[in-house]
Structures are given as structure tokens and as C-alpha cells.
Amino acid sequence: MEDRAASAMTVWQREVREEAEEEYPQRIAAAVAHPERYADPERFPRLARLLGGAVMVRKTLPPQLTQALLGLAFETVLTVGASSRFREHEEFGRSVQALIDVLEATGTPVSGLLLSAARFQALFANGDQSRLDLIVRAVDASRTVDERIAALLTMSRSRTDISDYQGARAALDECAGLVRQESAAHWRAEYEHSLGLSHYYADPKRAAEHFEKSVRFGQPVLGRPGVSQAVASSLHYLGRFAAEGGEYARALELFVEGESLSDRRLTSHGFYHQRLAEILVAHGTVEEAAHHLARSQQTFDQAAQRSNALALLGGTWTDFYLRTGDLHQADDAVSQAIEQSRKEKGARIELVLLAKRLRLLLRQRRLGAPLVLLCRAAWLYMRYELDCNPVTALRQTLVVARQGARMVRSGASPGGQPLVCPCGENHRGGEDAE
Question: How many CB atoms sit inside 10 A of residue 271's CB?
């Protein structure tokens, strides 16, 4: 088939392919040898074009060079970001998958690359089927214990993202036996973190215990790949529990501690600023809240983030405008956020946003409107979030009811001094200290 296609090529087409086969391997080798050239997001389109060139010569490109190029591309898009001028994200994703297919056909291990492709896909849609397909394929392609654990833990988190808690725990059940092996002990921090996530929305006490175990297991081996990020994420969720318990200063400290251990992925950095802003909007100063909201927005934009992260940030902007008394802007922010969550089929995020809209409706004294909103919230919860286990469902409903009431009541703390943000950044203009 390939020979017939080659013979059918015109002289011009053959010359173009020959020129590409001569030019692109050299350019790709130079890019891989000098990754610092792509430390500026504005240079990402050049890297994406190199990936497209690699697809043209994929049959003759050495597998090691293809692997290195994919590694550079993923590292750049996830930690440096893409230019605001870059719009070819779908084409980039197709190029990535075409190159992974070629590597797999040569017998090269591809499970880790598939997980990186799934992380890229999550920028646009957490619950997208193509993201899940990549993760399933990564599980199937795993060859070592480490690869299988990494893929199963990613599977668990992706299932939690779409409220499939049974699916998340099924992946973790398979993981349990693997992480008990002495050679896999360094995975225990991430395993406990994923267990905590699977219980976060129904059993906070149990979830907190797993997050604390994650920190305890991870701290002695922070130098191992992935461990510091697992500990950072667990500290992040312990901070959220502290905030839900009214320990706002402690929550801020935990967020900052977690950020100091976090990897360089832009999405994690954006969530860090969003969570700081969430507390500062209600319990800090307007200036510090505005600073972290702007930093979160800037970071998500740099990451080309289009998924539910933007919807969640829109909810925090809603809180900010409610605090400053700009009800029109609050209405715009929450409406756009709800639209985004529905587009991404993010039922859990929409429930959070509906609580914020209810606050807005009460401020606007639109006393008849909440009935429709509450009916929508009840339907979403019953349809997508409620656990099928009756005991778990009862406990989960009580947790959700408490959280919903807290969000509706949320507002600036009466009296007392506002909290001071402990992040160490310059909140009053000028260059931010990282």
C-alpha cells in the first residue's frame, strides 16, 4: 500500500518529501538539544510546527528523536504555555497522537507519553471521551509496575473528575496490591492522595485521613518523581478542609506550603492563585484578592486552559464582584461560568456555581427566581453526583447540604482585621515576586 502511494506521488510531491526528510530531522535535533529556546510562550508555535514536520517524516525519524521531541513539546505546553496567538491546539493534539502511534508500532514504550497527551487534553475538557480513551490506552500499553500504577492513578483521578466515584475506586483497587510492593513504595503518597480525592465529596473525614497519609508517606522521599506534587496536592486539599472549618489563616498557610512543593505545571499554579483568592475575597483585602484573581486568570490564559478550571475561576470572580457591590459584573461572571460548566458537562462545578448564583439572586431580591435554580440543582445532584450506595448517599447528601449552605452564606467576615496573605508576592503593582 505504501509503495503504491509512493509511486503515485508527483515529482513535486517527492521533492517536497525529500526536502522535508533532509530538513526536519536536523531542526528537531537542534530543538531537542536546546530546550531553553522554548522558554518563552511566544515561541511555542514554532515548536508546534516542528511537531507537524515530524509527522511528515515520521517513518524515517529515529524513535529516540521522536520521543525527545514529544517530551519537549509536552513539557513546554504544560509548564511554559502557548502563545496567545496559537490556535491550532486540535492539530497539535492530532500530531502528538500520530507520532505516538508510530512509536508504538516500533515497540517503543508509550504509556507515559499517552498520559502526557491526556494531561494536554484536560486543558480543554476534563470529561472529554478522548481524554479517557488516552488514559485507557495508557493502562493497556503499560509494561512495568511503575507505568501501570501511573496510568491507574491517572484513571482514578479522571473518573473522579466526572463524578464516577465507583470507577475511580475500581482503578484504585487494582493499584492497591501494586503499591504494597517494596519497589513501588514511592507511589504510596500519590496513591493515598488519589484515595482522598475519591472520598472528598462524600466522606471528608476519611478523605482528610488519606491526604494526611499522603503527606506523611511523601515527605521522606520528596526527591522521587511525582512525590512532591502528590504532597503539594494533598496539602492543597487539607487547606480546603481548613477553610471549610473556618480556619482561614491555616488554609492560606497550607496552600502556600503546597505551592512551594508543586511542580511547574501552569494549571496547578493557576488553581493555587484561585484558592488563595477564594479566601481573600471573603476574609482578606480587596487588593490582595484582586491580585490573585488576576494571577490565576493570567496563568490559565497562558496555559490555554479552556476546561472547568475557567468555570471555577468565574465563580470566584462572582464572589469578588459581590463583595465590591458590582452586581451586574457578578451576574455576567456567574452566567458565563455556568455556561462553561454545562459545555464541559461539569455537574459538580455547576452545583457550586448555582450556589453562587443563589447568593446573587438574594442580593438582587429576586425572591421568585431561586425556585427554578433549586430544581436544577436537585436534578443535577440526583442525576450525576449521588452515590448509589444508600449509606454513602446519605452521608454525601449531608456534606453537600452543609457545603451549599456555607457557600450561600459566604461573605466578608464581620468586624476584626482582614487576613494578610502569606504568599510573599507584591500585591500592590510592580513586578510580582515569585
Answer: 23
The full 3-state SS of 255-306, as one line of letters, equals HHHHHHHCCCCHHHHHHHHHHHHHHHHHHCCHHHHHHHHHHHHHHHHHCCCC
Residue-range definition of the domain harbouring residue 103: 18-108
Looking at the 3D structure of the chain, how many domains does it have? 1
pLDDT band at 196 (very low <50, low <70, confident <90, very high): very high
Q: Is residue 415 part of a domain?
A: no
Q: Which amino acid would we find at residue 170? A: A
The answer to the question of residue 259 being in a domain is: no
Does residue 158 lie within any of the structural domains?
no
Tell which phi-psi region holds residue 415, choosing left (phi > 0), alpha (psi between -120 and 50) or beta: left
In a domain, 192, yes or no: no
DSSP 433: P
Helix (H, G, I), strand (E, B) or coil at 412: coil
- 330 within 8 A of 321, measured Cβ to Cβ: yes
**196 in Cβ contact with 214 (< 8 Å):** yes
Cell 513535486 sits on residue: 12
Q: Please give the model's pTM, rounded to 2 decimal places.
A: 0.88
Condensed to tens digits (0 to 9), the pLDDT of residues 290-304 reads 999 999 999 999 988
Alpha carbons 264 and 345: distance in angstroms, whole number: 28
Which three three-digit cell numbers place residue 261?
Answer: 512543593
Q: Count CB neighbours of 48 within 10 A.
A: 22
Distances (CA, A) of 88 to 91, 94, 116: 5, 10, 18
Q: What is the pLDDT of residues 376-400, one digit of tens each?
A: 999 988 888 777 776 676 676 776 6
